[in-house]
Amino acid sequence: MSRLTKLVAAVVALSLMSAPRAAGQARPAGADAVERRVEEMLARMTLEEKIDLLGGVDDFFVRASGRAGLPRLKMADGPNGVRNFGPSTAMPSGVAMAATWNPQLVERVAAEIGRDARAKGVHFLLGPGVNIYRSPMNGRNFEYFGEDPFLAARVAVGYVRGVQSQGVAATVKHLAANNSEFDRHNTDSIIDERTLREIYLPAFEAAVKEARVGAVMSSYNLVNGEHASQSGHLQMDVLKREWGFDGVLMSDWGGTYDGVAAANAGQDLEMPSGVHMNRKNLLPAVGRGAVAAATIDDKVRRILRTAARFGWLERDQTDLAVPRLNMRGRRVALEAAREGLVLLRNEGALLPLDRRKVRSIAVIGPVAYPAVPVGGGSGRVEPFAAVSFLEGLGNHLGESTPVYYARGLRTLGEMAEATEFTTQPAGGEAGLRGEYFTNAELSGEPTVVRVEPRVNFSRQARLFPPQALSSRWTGYFTPKAAGEFDVFAASTGEDAGFFRLYVDDRLVFDNWSETRALVRLTTLELGPGAHKILLEQRGKFGRLGTRMQLGIQRRGEMVSPEAKALAAKADAVVVAVGFDHTMEAEGADRTFRLPAGQDELIRELADANRNTVVVLTSGGGVDMSGWLERVPALIQAWYPGQEGGTALAEILFGDVNPSGHLPATFERRWEDNPTHGSYYPQAGTNRVEYREGVFVGYRGYEKAGTKPLFPFGHGLSYTTFRYANLSVRRVGGGERAARGPAFEVSFDLTNTGGRAGAEVAQVYVGAASPAVPRPSKELKGFAKVSLRPGETRRVTAALDGRAFAYYDAGAKAWRVDPGEYRVLVGGSSARVELRGNVNLTPAEATTLR
Ligand code: BGC
Hints:
Oligomer: single chain
Bound molecules: beta-D-glucopyranose
Number of helices: 18
Shape: globular
């Protein structure tokens, strides 16, 4: 090693799964005092009072119990900040946190979320969300930590520790197999035990065993034929018995379907209120022995124990010393945004932009302004202020460099408003015939019939007749000339988000029983003449507001001339495209395609200016086939939180060297995704069969030999890194030690470029000739390492038995087989730089629990 090279043994955050703190073993400090206190409190309560405690109240509270001395406990969403009770720091969303590959940073982010929670007197923070990314369409991917269970587990542990360091209980959610939003109360995830254990449960397991998470939330969906909230297997056998979870297991909001079944299956608390777990149902059930009194006691103990453990019995949870406008939170939000943005493509080293050469810049697109810090639904946080990409660049460049702005496209509302219909193919009135029914089935006579000039219902614009439970609009669309048209229909998602659209009697969008996308989009070839339109909607608009929009726009005419002119004139162009909280949100999925007109916007601006950078706001992959080859640079911004605009400007101009890496594979085509044939329910059923098994994400692409567009773990930097001198060494523990065979993987990582930068070094393990089908490699360690130009560090990763194990469902244990294993090290799942081997002897073969 050269004398100039300073060798530092990097103490890197690698990845030991700590031993399970199973019941009765290694009790946390103070546990006995807590338990004594809990018993005293419990003894003062009547059965009625105990049962009352098991149902929430006022949407986000656990009832106080005067006799027991339990204060009323407050909850708030989660996970991107503290959503309820007024504005808070909007952190980069979950997937962006995962893209930092920096669990220590996530811990600091979560500590600030915890402080914001204390400022609002919140006891339970309803996050993190750790459901695995199967398909880019899942409307809640943005809240979660990506496709890999190991990465998700490390990030989840950081998150839980951060929140809980502030005396706030984190709530890991949603247990389990809740990987889509299109019909979330009814879908049944059909999934084998091995896949559950290896892919979908490890992040929950780590949150419980390593971070001792205070609460767990179950999911809306069914798992193998049973509501998750009634799954004794998941909740009792796995969570409580096997993992030793001693906190509160709550339902999702309205995710309890049967009080007795949920109570017996381990649910401790029904949220938001005791619709099922209440006196009416549980008192007689206890009386007839259908629910044991001891079961009720156990639930109450868990609530009391959590309150005692977190100090809620001693202090007022509202900490007025924490400023609501959290400036430290703001700084950490910026740090996380800087580390979470991923530079996906940088042809010809367009980036970083040179301030001396770029004398003007145009920032164009629907996501340029205002800021889009988070997606929609319960994960949406309203910050005090958020820096849009436009403002971030403006602030960064100041007065000397003009930052031009145009939206470039109409809003969906404007597109709907600009779409003209007639009630008859020729003649007739302008508009559509609207029929409104007070039943949900469009049956009988409509109660209101009127001509609607457009389908553009929203809180701001037109409203539905208030009693309507289903509606129908009929009429004609006559293009000025034949051509290709983008057709979209937008709704609010569940509750009222059900609609179907027919064009010329052909079913174009079917959102009638599943909200496959909040905003459906397709392209139709329309000939001259009138085209028959029939749009039907059902459901009552409620919590999520009113929205039903229908737009038909000619392709090739969507981009504003002003945007094109600005793009041609500026030295560089930033096109900010993607989704927002009205298009990518809880309660519905989204399209793989970018929203209407955005592909066209990118193409036309890239044609106008070679120095075009696309900045993408989304929870995951999108269809880039229509434009990627035309643009030199692409940055994945996710939902970057309130400071996203500042982080983007710093990265574009090289003040910050990008270091985010993908926590999910981005596919070239949706057809390439391993879940393509299994993401939606089997026709005519509610069964979502996880047929890809453990081969989710990169595990599946590698098995199929399909090259993704951007592989899992990919992320570019403005500097370069070299990997060298791999060593894989057996360490302590001895054979058949509690955690199985242990190894230390170490290697040299050098910054070979001219700028300081951070690499995400990844360690993958794969069995050379496995006894059961296994992924060719799986992430088992990683480290984010910052290096000055020329600096080298020795990076170390620890592997324990779990790194080599697969779950043997028959034996109900993790099995480590003897044989050869590859140890692969590199900067992405597809960029392996170093290869090593370990050979596990028959004596090292073991099972782990
Ligand atoms: C979501 C949960 C959330 C809860 C409370 C539900 O609709 O699924 O993630 O914590 O609402 O807002």
